[in-house]
Design a protein that fits this description.
Elements (H helix, E strand, L loop, with lengths): L6 E6 L2 E6 L1 H8 L5 H7 L8 E4 L8 E6 L8 E5 L7 E5 L2 H30 L8 H11 L1
Parallel strand pairs: 1-6
Antiparallel strand pairs: 1-2, 3-4, 4-5, 5-6
Length: about 140
Amino acid sequence: MTETASTAPLYRNGSWEETTDVVSTLWDENQDQDYDVVLRRAGFAPSPWTQVGNTDFTLPLALVVYARHGGEEPAFLVEVNPSSSFVHHVYAHQVHDVMDLITRWGPALQAGAVTEAVQQLFQSGPEDQDKSQLVRSLERIARG
């Protein structure tokens, strides 16, 4: 029985289209192999080109970007939320496309980082009389 290849969104010159999700397809066929091996077989370097966001946060909104070498396209794989149980793949055609995606999604990543910082301040902050003006201001904002 032949399985159909997975698809994923491809961002190219400001527009979206569908492309074969070669990494997911190879992973489905080779789950006994290390993920690095699957990335290499798909033509991607196994170490990230860049990472934006933090996967250790309570709200782990992050992008991990892998680059292809040798001119094969799409040139970039973007993994969205790589620490969750399900990773979403998005492909970017060229470097200007991946930079555009990072720029467009940056505010959401930044909001996640700020939310995490506020949560950590509330969870591990000193007693009320010793709290900094910043912590008191953030508490007022959080209470509305």
